């Protein structure tokens, strides 16, 4: 990365305030003014806008900002990013790179930032956006023949679909550079699923690509021997029944639920769905922390909204009964319950935007 | 049972010698010190001048080693306490056979790998790159693919073993100076390498540090009727390519050429499709002063990107009609019967027809009636469409909206102060019957209000807890209500996300949304989002 002028003190608060108000013009104006005064555009993307977006996620998790404000802020940042890169990006001289989110993955801003950083560095970038269906991505690869696909996955629950996408890209001869929290903080899920490479940050990814990264063509492989027990397959097949079953019995097991209105009931259904989906993801990559990290985070988010952690414990107990014949899932639920039993202290870190 | 009889009296010594000499294996009789006491003819031939077996092995029992250019295998057989017999086998033939088999196996493995990798992509650039990478890794020190000339220039792609691939362009004239290249590009049979003079190769063909070319092979890449290009293989070691290597290069070139020309065919068709498809994709929304517009489109078939839902927005346009009224700002969203390309073509026609008709008739209700007439086709009763049309006129700090529906779900309004209302516009399908019923509704959008047009794919999407529950109109209204204060783009994206999570990867109908929002006057923090860029 090029040497940069540090940003003026207080600029980050100013930017956060502007996007929080949905002030598209103000935010764009601020970013462009900084650029015109000599700030490095990559630094503006990764040192100003990206951290502000992390703060947005935290403010939502802490129940300080509404969903609407969170989305408004993100949309505002996107406009500012577009305005900056439209002015600052050079003519592409390097190769071509496709940047995409996994199917079902909506966290488009981090890969978007990567795409724009690459554009600033002279790559030709096709950013396909959020929620890219596998067939659409593969068609795009046939049509444009990029050097690399940068594939983003923010949620571990999208890993099975990310795996399918990864394999499809490699099958048409294009190497995949994986990124995003879903692949694990150290990229271990990316390795497990056979990605050709992994980068922790946009800067790392751009540096890897700049270094002339050209991984050898991968032969098909299979490191997912643990799936042979079919627990993942069965859980996904029975997903709807399991979720409905838990919800039905939750009313008896957790009395406050009887007073829920339709919206609260929907939110609870969503929470139970997430628990089952994260459990499935943990089975898929055979990693208990995928499940326990999610539970810790959810407990904190619920606590911020006045829902006690016991609601989660009850769900896990109900699931344990349902999944008696699933030894691996049973172990995961046990470690989840143990994790919740350690208690959520006040001021618990709820900063990870993992949902 | 017959068999070899034991002979009671041993034959004379000269006969025993003759027997030993007749065997192809070397036979040596040694004493316990390894000194050779007796050797047959083969032993004299394979191991001339040998006095003791210790000269060639320290191992008391066996050896495998090369001697006088021959791979030899020796084994000891004890005879009595003081004597051993060593037999020594000449493995030259076996070794050569094994080497040939290994080579053949490697060649087959290479061609299997090459086929797998070459058939993976339908992109010409990718196929060419794979070709040079494979060739530089397995066939030569450097490989260059030269593509057929276009406008007196030829593109080339090359790879040198162990380094990155490169691309470039040279003049057709320079390409002609490469021995055998013009012929190969014209699809002639490969010129045997021994006829090629590598000193004629232009320096630019290989990278600067490559060094002198020892051997060169130029092979055409056969294509569909016309060659897909030519493959040049270069080696540093002097001497021609062996016949078997030439054959392998030719087989490889045939597969590479096939892959490249299939990709060319695919790219041609993609280009044609892209041109035809351009008008069927959701349009880039125009910039309309005083409105925020955002659309979302998710066709039922993921790979096609086109379907039977459509939306469009038309800014106010000066009048073309004799009556002199301007064509007001208008937004439309509709749903053609069916899915996929066939539906998309009809949707495209409807959009084009509307684009023209609105210049002559700007009022939504008569416009729908005219459109109905235009779409009626007595030969084809299956062409029908539902849609919502809304014309919008500025009204103080907001907009007055006149909406007309042709059998389409009612648009929703998310008010800036909160709450969701349905716009009571109703009507019958367009394109089926002569007379249609259209009820228009007029509403006002104030600052911060948002109008959402959508197709039924949105609330009919099935999923949820049970997997088969429809998303439903109530849930849609509720989701929209949670989007208060969001920019139009964020609203559309949030709804898309909620529905996608609801569906959870299962199939769905086409889904289209168009959100129109009047920018809010003052946001909660006191900023004016639509204010002009402040002066610096």
TrEMBL record, chain A:
The keyword Nucleotide-binding does not apply. GO terms for biological process: homocysteine metabolic process; tetrahydrofolate metabolic process. Gene3D superfamilies: Cobalamin-binding domain, Methionine synthase domain. One of its GO terms (molecular function) is methionine synthase activity. GO terms for cellular component: cytosol. It comes from the Bacteria. This is Methanogenic corrinoid protein MtbC1. It comes from Catenuloplanes indicus. The lineage of its organism: Bacteria, Bacillati, Actinomycetota, Actinomycetes, Micromonosporales.
From TrEMBL, chain B:
Residues 293-518 form the PPM-type phosphatase domain. InterPro entries: Bact_Sigma-Reg, GAF-like_dom_sf, PAS, PPM-type-like_dom_sf, PPM-type_phosphatase-like_dom. SMART domains: PAS, PP2C_SIG. GO terms for molecular function: phosphatase activity. Keywords: Hydrolase. The keyword Protease does not apply. Pfam families: PAS_8, SpoIIE. It comes from the Bacteria. The keyword Hydrolase applies. This is Serine phosphatase RsbU (Regulator of sigma subunit).
């Amino acid at each position: 990365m090029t040497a940069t002028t540090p940003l003026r003190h207080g600029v980050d608060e100013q930017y956060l305030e502007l996007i929080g108000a949905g002030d598209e013009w103000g935010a764009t104006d601020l970013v462009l003014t900084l650029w015109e005064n000599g700030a490095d555009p990559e630094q503006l993307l990764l040192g100003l806008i990206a951290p502000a977006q992390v703060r947005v996620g935290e403010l939502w998790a802490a129940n300080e900002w509404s969903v609407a404000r969170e989305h408004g802020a993100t949309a505002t940042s996107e406009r500012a990013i577009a305005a900056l890169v439209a002015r600052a990006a050079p003519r592409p001289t390097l190769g071509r790179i496709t940047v995409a989110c996994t199917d079902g993955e909506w966290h488009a801003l981090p890969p978007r930032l990567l795409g724009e950083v690459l554009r600033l560095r002279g790559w030709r970038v096709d950013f396909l956006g959020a929620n890219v269906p596998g067939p659409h991505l593969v068609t795009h690869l046939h049509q444009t023949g990029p050097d690399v696909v940068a594939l983003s996955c923010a949620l571990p629950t999208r890993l099975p679909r990310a795996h399918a996408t990864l394999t499809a890209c490699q099958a048409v001869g294009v190497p995949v550079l994986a990124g995003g929290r879903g692949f694990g903080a150290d990229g271990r899920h990316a390795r497990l699923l056979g990605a050709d490479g992994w980068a922790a940050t946009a800067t790392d990814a751009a540096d890897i690509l700049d270094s002339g990264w050209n991984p050898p063509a991968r032969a098909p492989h299979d490191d997912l021997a643990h799936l042979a027990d079919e627990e993942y397959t069965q859980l996904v097949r029975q997903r709807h029944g399991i979720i409905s079953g838990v919800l039905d019995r939750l009313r008896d097991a957790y009395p406050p639920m009887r007073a829920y209105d339709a919206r609260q009931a929907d939110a609870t259904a969503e929470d139970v769905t997430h628990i089952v989906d994260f459990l499935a993801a943990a089975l898929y990559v055979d990693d208990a922390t995928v499940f326990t990290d999610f539970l810790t985070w959810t407990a904190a988010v619920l606590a911020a909204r006045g829902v006690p952690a016991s609601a989660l414990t009850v769900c896990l107990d109900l699931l344990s009964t349902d999944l008696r014949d699933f030894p691996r899932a049973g172990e995961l639920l046990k470690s989840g319950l143990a994790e919740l039993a350690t208690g959520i202290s006040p001021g618990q870190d709820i900063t990870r935007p993992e949902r | 049972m017959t068999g070899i009889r034991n002979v009671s009296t041993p034959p004379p010594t000269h006969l025993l010698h003759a027997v030993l000499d007749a065997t192809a294996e070397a036979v040596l009789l040694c004493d316990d010190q390894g000194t050779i006491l007796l050797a047959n003819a083969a032993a004299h031939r394979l191991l001339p001048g040998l006095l003791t077996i210790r000269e060639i092995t320290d191992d008391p029992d066996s050896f495998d080693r090369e001697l006088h250019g021959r791979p030899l295998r020796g084994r000891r057989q004890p005879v009595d306490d003081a004597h051993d017999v060593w037999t020594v086998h000449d493995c030259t033939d076996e070794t050569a056979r094994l080497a040939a088999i290994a080579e053949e196996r490697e060649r087959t493995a290479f061609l299997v790998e090459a086929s797998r990798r070459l058939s993976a992509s339908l992109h010409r650039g990718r196929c060419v790159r794979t070709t040079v990478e494979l060739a530089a890794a397995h066939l030569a020190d450097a490989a260059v693919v030269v593509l057929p000339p276009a406008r007196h220039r030829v593109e080339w792609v090359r790879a040198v073993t162990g380094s990155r691939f490169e691309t470039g362009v040279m003049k057709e004239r320079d390409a002609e100076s490469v021995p055998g290249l013009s012929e190969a590009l014209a699809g002639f049979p490969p010129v045997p390498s021994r006829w090629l003079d590598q000193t004629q190769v232009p320096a630019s063909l290989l990278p600067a540090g490559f060094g002198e070319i020892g051997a060169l092979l130029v092979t055409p890449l056969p294509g569909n009727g016309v060659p897909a290009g030519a493959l040049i293989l270069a080696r540093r070691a002097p001497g021609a390519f062996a016949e078997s290597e030439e054959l392998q290069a030719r087989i490889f070139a045939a597969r590479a050429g096939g892959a490249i020309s299939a990709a060319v065919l695919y790219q041609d068709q993609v280009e044609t499709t892209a041109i035809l498809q351009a008008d069927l994709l959701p349009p880039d929304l125009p910039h309309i002063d005083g409105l925020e517009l955002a659309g979302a489109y998710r066709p039922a078939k993921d790979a096609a990107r086109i379907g039977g839902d459509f939306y469009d927005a038309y800014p106010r346009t000066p009048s073309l009609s004799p009556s002199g009224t301007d064509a007001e700002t208008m937004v439309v969203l509709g749903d053609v019967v069916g899915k996929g390309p066939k539906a998309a073509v009809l949707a495209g026609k409807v959009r084009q027809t509307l684009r023209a008709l609105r210049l002559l008739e700007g009022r939504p209700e008569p416009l729908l009636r005219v459109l109905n007439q235009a779409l009626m086709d007595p030969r084809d009763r299956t062409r029908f469409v539902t849609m919502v049309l809304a014309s919008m006129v500025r009204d103080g700090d907001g907009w007055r909206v006149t909406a007309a529906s042709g059998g389409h779900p009612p648009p929703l309004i998310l008010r800036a102060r909160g709450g969701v209302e349905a716009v009571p516009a109703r009507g019958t399908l367009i394109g089926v019957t002569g007379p249609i019923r259209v009820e228009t509704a007029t509403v006002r959008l104030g600052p911060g209000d948002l109008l959402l047009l959508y197709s039924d794919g949105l609330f009919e999407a099935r999923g949820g807890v049970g997997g088969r529950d429809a998303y439903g109109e109530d849930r849609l209204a509720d989701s929209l209500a949670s989007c208060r204060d969001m920019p139009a783009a964020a609203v559309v994206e949030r709804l898309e996300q909620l529905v996608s999570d609801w569906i959870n990867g299962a199939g769905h109908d086409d889904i289209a949304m168009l959100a129109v929002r009047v920018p809010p006057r003052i946001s909660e923090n006191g900023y004016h989002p639509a204010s002009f860029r402040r002066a610096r």
